[in-house]
Each structure stands twice: as C-alpha cells, then as structure tokens.
Amino acid sequence: MKICRLTFVFTILSLIFSCSKKPVETETKDLQKFAIELVEFVDAGDYENASAMFDSAMTEVFHEEMMNQSWQVIEAKFGEIGELIESRTESVDGYDIVFLIYNFTKSKVEVKVVFDSEQKVAGFFAYPLEVSAIKPLPAYIDTSAFTEKLIEIGEGEWVLPGTYTIPKNTEKFPVVILVHGSGPNDRNETMGPNKPFRDIAWGLASAGIGVLRYDKRTYIYPEKVIEMYDELTLEDETIDDALSAVGYLLKNTWIDSSSIYIAGHSLGAMAIPAIASRVPNLGGFIIMAGNTRKLEELTLEQVNYIFGLDSFTKEESLYIDTLKAKIANIKMVSEDTVISPEDLPFGVSQVYWAYLENYDQLAEAGKIKKPVLVIQGERDYQVTMVDFAGWKSKLGHLGNFSFKSYPYLNHLFMEGEGRSTPEEYMIPNYVSGEVISDIIDWIKTIEQK
Fold it and tell me: What is the pTM of this model?
C-alpha cells in the first residue's frame, strides 16, 4: 500500500502524503507564498504546475488522479475554498512546515505544506481545524497509578519505538498489545485531537493491566515502505510488528504468553485472526470494530455514506462510478494479470488487494481456541453493525467468543449523538469508560480462572 500518502481518505478524513527524510539546511525563502501557490494549483486541477513543486517521493505517490480525487473529497465535505485567514511557518522534526488556515464555505480547514532542504514539497495535509480545547481526563484514568517506559520492538531495518505502560503497586499483571487501524498511525492512533490508544493504555493501567503500544512501521519508515510498495501486504503493514511486540514482552519481561492479550482496532481487528494463528497460546484477543466483509465493500459503503450526508453532486456520482470500476478490477487480479495501481482503489497495489482477497478472517477466527472479545460501536459508519452481526452469526456458537455493542459510540469508541460524521473525530473526546471497564472485567475474569 502506498503509505505516507492519501490513506483511505474516508477512513480518517485527512490527506497524508509522502514525507521525505531530508533535513532542513537552507534558509527558507517565500515558503508561505510557495505553499499558497500549491493550494491554488491543486484547487484549479493544475497538476503540471503542482507536480513541478514536488520532491521525487511526492511525485511518485501523488499522481494527477489522486490529487483531483483528494480535493473533490475535501470540497464535498467542507465546501469551496475561500479566503486565507491565517498563515505561519514552523520548523518541525527537520522540516519547514507552512500552516495555512482557509475559510471553506462549510468549515475552517488547516492545510499543511511540508518543505525539504531543497524547498521541494515533501508532504501535503488537509483537515478540519480543531475548534475546542481538550477536555479534562476521564474518571477512569489515574495517572498516579502507572509509569511509562520508552521501548523498541522489532529488529533489523524495522525497529519501532513504543511505550510500555506499567501499573504501579503490583508485581504481576497481564499486558495488552494494541494493534492499529489502516494508515500511518502513531502509537496513540492519533486522529485530530483524539488519542484512543493512549486512552486505552492509561485506562487499563489505572486498573492494574499493562499495555504495550508502538508506532506503526508505515509511520516511522515511509520511504522504505514506498520502496517495497509493489510487494507490501497486511503481513508487512500490521501482522509482523504485532508479533514483534509479543516477542519483546516474552524476551524482556517476566510475563509469560498466557498473560499477554492482543487488541486490534479496525484493520488491526481484521488482522487479529491471522495474528492469533501465529501465537495461539496467548491469553486472549480483542476485536474492536473489525470488519467481516471485504475491505473494498466497506470502502464503497463509506464513500456512499459520507457523500450521502448531503445531497449527492454530479461530481460525487462520477467519483463513485469510477470507484466501482476500480473495485471491479480487484476481482481481475491474478498472477497472470498486471493491473496498474491507478486502476485499483486509492492507488493501492494489486499485491495488497490479492492478499486481502485470499484472507478469510471469519474462517481463521473460528480456529482460535483462546477467549475472544468482539466489541462494536453502533454509530460506527466505517465498520458497521453488519460486520458485528457477521462475527456473531458465524462464531456466536463458540464458547470462547463474547460480544458487545454500544449504542452511542463511533469508530473510535467515543460517545456522540445522531449520525456519526468524519468531523466528529475532530472534536476532543475520550474512549468510553464503559468500553474500558468491559475490557478490564473480561481480562480479569480470564486471569482468575
């Protein structure tokens, strides 16, 4: 999958494109002017002038069709771009970044343009502007009840930084490993102002359960991932690093396999059966908003849902028709057929889609012998109650599976009202205390047996 680029826009509603590793060395000149020009080129569909500003990695990933589709999504949700109301430039992690805040007709949107040492565009981001401050920590978090240790998992070229959250005042405790959803996620699975993995880690640790979370390899090593793009599968993106996290605990702590649990969210939840097949003797597994249907089916459903929040435009209808054609191409993927990524959904390679076509998470889940908890937010539009029903109907007869859904929770397991929308993810919130409590009770029941 092309990482550090547009990462399933409809999954996270932010545009994430290529970021090179060149440090900023030259004095920046007129970068705000250059950034504004780039936005104008993208808005006008002028790919020739826009691409002339890109570095080599950005040119490879952000092709003309992707640029146009990405901007159509932004306009569909936030309206037409209006006046520039604020701009600033900062140096962050070795890059010069220009922040531009525009008044779109429906919302304020912040655009970030990342420049490398040669003043070439190495990254482009756009998302709704955060409008309110973060709320006080929820009652289920007691920061005095745990400590955190910076660690590294994996080895060789894929060493990943992470955080090990350790409960205080207890010598032995179970540990949960958190596995991310799609896209280049950090260890907190940060989305706008929200950090669901941090909430889970702090909530469980406050109750005496350790948590290991780590930055995804697609977040830490975007250039290396792009280099292996044509061969990348779910194994590389997600499964291998979850197994490395298990290895870290077994090698560097007193904890044995029976007290290790793995919780996967979204794409990570879909991967849980594959992970469990590699480490079948762990304490148990948690599937959080995991899909039972094919990813392309969910993608089309998400697009229809988001466009359907308002009246469909002609451009949106054409976009859906194009997406349907690309989805149909997935069924044509084979060893004897070469299909360009541009002819597949979101520019994802045929190797990635072929892996998913051959992966049956329900069949694999049926082989798990250890306890499994399946949880789902009923307001989730990304992975819906249709998928939750899929897990339950196929696996509900097995005594090691437990199921629970939550009427007011969205894809991040955060509470809201009415129909869930992408903008909801930009409102500061925390993972529901009920979810934290249910996970704690489920684990402690297992540990007491």
Answer: 0.76
